[in-house]
Amino acid sequence: ALDISKLRATSGLITLDVGFKNTGSTTSNVTFLDGEKGILRHRGYSIEDLAEKSSFLEVAYLLIYGELPDAQTFENWSSRIMKHSLVHEDIRKIFDGFPSTAHPMGVLSSLVTSLTAFHPESIDPNRDSAAIDLTIVRLLAKLPTLAAWSFKNSQGLPLEYPNAKNDYVSNFMQMMFKNKHMDYDVDPVIMDAMNKLLILHADHEQNCSAATVRVVGSSLSSLYVAVSAGINALWGSLHGGANQAVIEMLETIQADGGNIDKFIAKAKDKNDPFRLMGFGHRVYKNFDPRSRIIKKAADDILDRLGVNDPLLDIAKKLEDIALTDPYFVEKKLYPNVDFYSGIIYKALGFPTEMFTVLFALGRLPGWIAQWKESREMVQPISRPRQVYTGETHRAYPEDRTVA
Ligand code: ACO
User: Fold this and answer.
1) d(CA 314, CA 262)
2) Nearest CA to ligand 1 atom 27
3) CA dist 58 to 61, 173, 365, 397, Å?
4) Global pTM?
5) CA of 293 to the centre of ligand 1 (A)
6) What are the catalytic residues (predicted)?
7) pLDDT digits 0-9 by tens, 230-288
8) Complex ipTM value
9) 241-253 confidence digits (pLDDT tens)
10) Residue 275 alpha carbon to ligand 1 centre in Å
11) Whose CA is nearest to atom 18 of ligand 1?
């Protein structure tokens, strides 16, 4: 195998690949992706099998430790995680400082960084593996609590504490939707859909946020700090923020009288910055295997919940037109996972601003696996070069006076 710690910097020749479209930044054993054939596998297992047969926490274990857990290992793993799901009471004081209008992604990334204050030993990424494991367990355990609390904060509602007796997904749903006046029973169909959605987002090799986590981790930053940076990278509308942008785009089309052709034309117009949100992918050029699974899940859940949402009709029409329009066909722009996930989240009652937070919950095991792998590989600090195109040497004006 390639020992990347032995690779030495070369001087002289610099390759330029803006956006890293064709540049591998690392070797990795975590996720295999073939964009032409539409294949996605984690540690060798197909995404189809994992989404159908595993729970989210099993997939998290697989990504982080390389194997599916046996029954006893899983029991220990999940009960350990649930035991750590409470956050320090002083974190509530930090919540009090955020206005209720704060976007939950900003709140989430700030709070993940603030975990270093409550668990300062996590700052050193070179501890023994038991200490690293504890940091990993804490992060997986606390992110749903922080996510649900940032939602409650945005609604001005009292925070709901985690319940270690619940499983991971239903605990999160309870913290989101239960309150002092209303119980929330988690429907098994909703549980199944949530597990699937989280699994489908769990890792995607060197995407923008995972690459960010590795870059930040390469300077020997702690796991919490690297994941906080990943959350911020995910927030943008060209990445995880697309799931929120999809629903906002559908709402705009609806408010504009449902004129889909007009928006298709805008997306094709080179002078118009508008893009069809939820279409296209850097790597998948035939189809996104996650979209197939999620599309079916969307149909099942909408049937089950009896949802009748005019935005869904717009989404379906948009999908039909784009799939046959020569512009989208020639450029191989297909609906990606974000096109459908927002539709399901909306049907489940999540407010639009929480959609990208749900993506972050799903992507967390991937970020952890990527950070852990890069540390184990003793990856050198990430430090790309550039091709300078600015002014060459200029003489400082002698007669310049400072105002
Ligand atoms: N609508 C209209 N045109 C598009 C779209 C779109 N959604 N996506 C790409 N194109 C066009 C571009 O204008 C470009 O045209 P050109 O070759 O004539 O200049 C061509 O298709 C290639 O697009 P790039 O931006 O070069 O492709 P890139 O790989 O850099 O970008 C991306 C991929 C960011 C996903 C892009 O397709 C996009 O902006 N999609 C919409 C946002 C979105 O859905 N993001 C979620 C991605 S999936 C995820 O993060 C889980």
Assistant:
1) 13
2) 282
3) 5, 18, 10, 65
4) 0.91
5) 21
6) 281, 338
7) 999 999 989 988 888 999 999 999 999 999 999 999 999 999 999 999 999 988 888 88
8) 0.94
9) 888 899 999 999 9
10) 7
11) 270
